[in-house]
Amino acid sequence: MKKKFLALLMCGMMATLSFTGCSSAPSKDSNPATEQSTPEGESKPAEEAKPEVVELNVGMVTDAGTIDDKSFNQGTWEGIIRAGEELGVQTNYLKPAGTTEAEYLKEIANLYDTGYKFIVTPGFKFETSILKAQDRYKDAKFVILDGAPQDGNDNYNVADNTVAIYFAEHQSGFLAGVATAVELKEGALGFIGGMEIPAVQKFNWGFQQGVAYANANLGANMTIEESNVVYQGSFDNVPAGQQLAAQMFDKGVKAIFCAAGGVGVGAIKEGVERSAQGKEAWIIGVDTDQYAEGFYDGDNTKSCVLTSAVKRIENASFDMIKAELDGTFPGGQTLTFDITNDGVGIPNENPNLSDETEKTVTDIAQQLKDGKITVADNNDDNSLIK
Question: Is 2 exposed, middle or buried (0-12, 13-18, 19+ CB in 10 A)?
Fold first, then answer.
């Protein structure tokens, strides 16, 4: 495969450090200072300290799907919830009746009118609504993930009260492809995408490059046929995802990479059912660590999810909230979360991968960070299956 070098424009490096939560109070036996007197003269342990509530209300408008979609909505919300727990902000989310600009703007207005003036939106479908909202509500702050404000004709404008965040999906797809090929060694693979948009395409292209790299350099012998690369056309058609996965597995595919939101949830369901019957039916998850969604035994110790191509979405939403509290909100900027700032990758723990495979992927990830290996975010040379 002809290799291309991608120069990722890094508009900012955002911290992804975890903040330690408040520890439990020691027992009254070990520290009398933790006791509180009661009217009866008895004592009880002091309540655990809670983070101070700050004057920042953070809201989210969901995209297609639900807040627990095991994908983009959930990852975004988990970062906001973390900010509530660790930074003391007030949190809320609203789910629109549909996915039109008008419906998004309605929920943005509802959040704003109830005092939520820091609003996070997940997905490119919010691009035109955020363009209008950032001008309409100048005293509010907006974060759009996987997109940037535009008028529908690719005329982009990130205002000073907005930050746009993209992810290097091709890099996490590449690492997932390497991990899959090294672990399974030989056989057929498939890909199920949601809508055929750049973020989903980059997952596909990166995955195929990762498989090709493992075939050429790491002793693997995996194949991806054109008929096993499918874009379903939505992110919420669960039954369609299960049907597509069933068709691929029936053709002998060992593992399917799903970058498809709810469609991918359907594919995982098919993987769970087949695995429970003792069949080989691996799924590679996306966006978040989907390992737990693939449990197929009663004790929840076995999963059909081999690994996941992760975009650390929760870090992006959390980091922007923290930046606002610190007075460093990067308004007007377009940021990229990539391998160099740990914005993408595979999960830190992958129970279905051998230690040897994990060591190999860790080494490949470091080479990506060092620029020794590069991954194309396009298919301009037509060397990959579309």
Answer: exposed
CA distance 286 to 292: 13
Are the C-beta atoms of residues 273 and 207 closer than 8 Å to each other? no
Percent of the chain predicted with pLDDT > 90: 77
Sign of the dihedral defined by the CA atoms of residues 124, 129, 131, 133, in that order: negative
95 torsion bin: left (phi>0), alpha (psi -120 to 50), beta (else): beta
Distances (CA, A) of 372 to 13, 111, 168, 174, 220: 21, 46, 17, 14, 21
| Residue 54, pLDDT score | 65
Quote the tokens at residue 324: 């606002």
Neighbours of 379 (CB within 10 A): 17
How many Å apart are CA 262 and CA 264, to the nearest integer?
5
Q: In the prediction, which pLDDT does 66 show? A: 80
Q: What is the CATH number of domain 169-310+354-369?
A: 3.40.50.2300
Closest CA to 218 of 55, 361, 75: 361
* Number of residues written out for the chain: 386
Residue 255 CA to residue 308 CA, distance in Å, equals 12
Asked: is 57-167+314-337 a CATH 3.40.50.2300 domain? The reply is yes
Where along the chain do the CATH 3.40.50.2300 domains lie?
Answer: 57-167+314-337, 169-310+354-369
pTM across the whole model:
0.80
- Between CA 243 and CA 171 the distance in angstroms is 28
How far apart are alpha carbons 171 and 23 in whole angstroms? 37
* pLDDT at residue 42, rounded to an integer: 44
376 pLDDT higher than 90: yes
At residue 189, the 3 state secondary structure works out as strand
Amino acid at site 345? G
pLDDT at 164 over 70: yes
38 CB contacts (<8 Å, ≥6 apart)? Answer: 44
Within 8 A by CB and 6+ apart from 20, the residues are none
Other CB atoms closer than 10 Å to residue 160's CB: what's the count?
13
